[in-house]
Please model this.
Amino acid sequence: MSKKNEYISFAEFSRTYVPAINEYIYTFYSNKELSAHDPDIKLAYNLLKEYCTRDGKRIRPLLLLLSYLGYGGPISEIQSVIPVAASLECMHAFLLIQDDIIDGAIMRRGKPAFHKVCDSSYNRYNEHIGSWVAIVLADVLMSNALEMISGLTTTSMSAFLHEFAIIYERTALGQMLDIIWSNPEHIGDEDIPHTIASMKTAHYTVSGPLRLGYILAGGSSNDELQKLEQAGYKVGFAFQMRDDIIGVFGSEEDSGKSASSDIEEGKYTVLVQKTLQLLHDSTVKEQFMAIFKKKQKSKEDIQAIKAYIAKSGAKANVQQLISRYVNNAKEIIPQLQCDSFMKRCLLDFIENLFN
Model:
């Protein structure tokens, strides 16, 4: 691996380490596939290998590696950290599989969703087989992610595993709330969209990987962990709000999943919350909610919901909120005790993420 000081941008950092992460995952599942004797299990590992190595930004593993190096983790030992970074990508894939089954999505990263792949690969004249197999293989993915971590030898292993467990427990509970609050019967003053976005996405996408990398490098300052959480949360929450906008106004190419899926599912996002706050006419608000709460929405319903959101000014309002959170994060980064390399890459990462 090159010296970290050679990287002048997050994109350059990514170009070095994404292939290493992908190669580790590919080799891991190739070995699993070779050792499997049952043809269905062999096929399962092949499907997981393809799914986990699909084109993606690899944000979570890259942030872990960046934080590890930025806080003094020796680059000479980076090969021993690559499996840990890969485990975060596998946990991400595990969550995406669950998410797509719950949402009924048919596409992910420009290809069929994993349960659709399983449906065509294990055709046993059972209409549920794709989802059932995908649920079980998601569990296999989680187990594999833990196996990838198991080879790590560090004095901070206990702290690392504790943080790892908290990150994914919080993410799962956020997903639970997201399910409960999709197509809600009643919407009051609860700030549920904020809670869901922070639990389901913000922490596990940015602050969690940064904290894990810091712990792997031997860091233990509660003050520094808190700053990483604050900065990462700001970026992660802004990232989720941007994703909410894409989920309504973006294309399938933008989101990597089925277009308008958030509207079809009736997801109660910050964007929907802002729409309700900005629709001051009670009759118009009731009309919007009547369509939004429909269990089955037609193409006309979806277009009407988009029109209400656009007319309310909620999109522009959320975009302003995103800018505020991003700027807040940029103010925290210079206060971190990491080296200038990490600060520079983090700022570059944020700049590229929201442009």
Observations:
- The radius of gyration is 21 Å.
